[in-house]
Amino acid sequence: MDNNETAGRSITRNSIILGIFAMVTVGLIAVTQQGTAARIAEEKRRAQMSALTEILPESEHDNDLLEDTLVVDDRKYLNLPTPAVAYRGRQNGDVVAVILPVVAPDGYSGRIDLLVGIYADGTLAGVRTLSHRETPGLGDKIERAKSDWILTFNGKSLTMPEPENWAVRKDGGEFDQFTGATITPRAVVQAVYRALQYFQENRATLLQQTEEPANG
Ligand SMILES: Cc1cc2nc3c(=O)[nH]c(=O)nc-3n(C[C@H](O)[C@H](O)[C@H](O)COP(=O)(O)O)c2cc1C
Question: FMN-binding domain: from which residue to which, for each copy (predicted)?
Fold first, then answer.
């Protein structure tokens, strides 16, 4: 066996080993990515579920919220980039509240996803933050787990407070901003107000008694 032949075999063997390594690596990355995507989806689903029951506790409805949904598609008020699911709470068949998907597009770090629950009379049942990229320690006080701030919306409506007070204190309104962070709460206050406007404009569709899906 001459040197050339030995070198050729060695190159072939190394190429095969390299190829196997590449395939194994690609496979591992794919598996990891799939696992991560599944975990994120599961995390989102869990956040959605706990937000729904926090906004409208079991004692306030007798239907399955997940089975009584409608698709809403609105850029003007809800800022939804794509159609999204809203939930209806019922007591004895009557719609008592609607929980709307709402986007605040103008957080400090971009989009903030909210769920806004509104009783049939137009008062707020509750608001929860589903996802955001705001700064830990500054903007993340919009999370229920980090602060009570999001609870200040409970019971408020389009007229309570007056429209000019639907703003953070720094802008002349009645909602607290956070120390060193005005942009995040400002975005959320405005998004919640717009959700109330959407509810008022689409009240009939949102509260209609059929359980057929409908576009809002
Ligand atoms: C690194 C860094 C991260 C910040 N994160 C946030 C944030 O998440 N939310 C927020 O409202 N402001 C954040 N701020 C502060 C804003 O830039 C701004 O100063 C603050 O919101 C006050 O806004 P105002 O001057 O309009 O009242 C951050 C600032 C820095 C330097």
Answer: 107-199
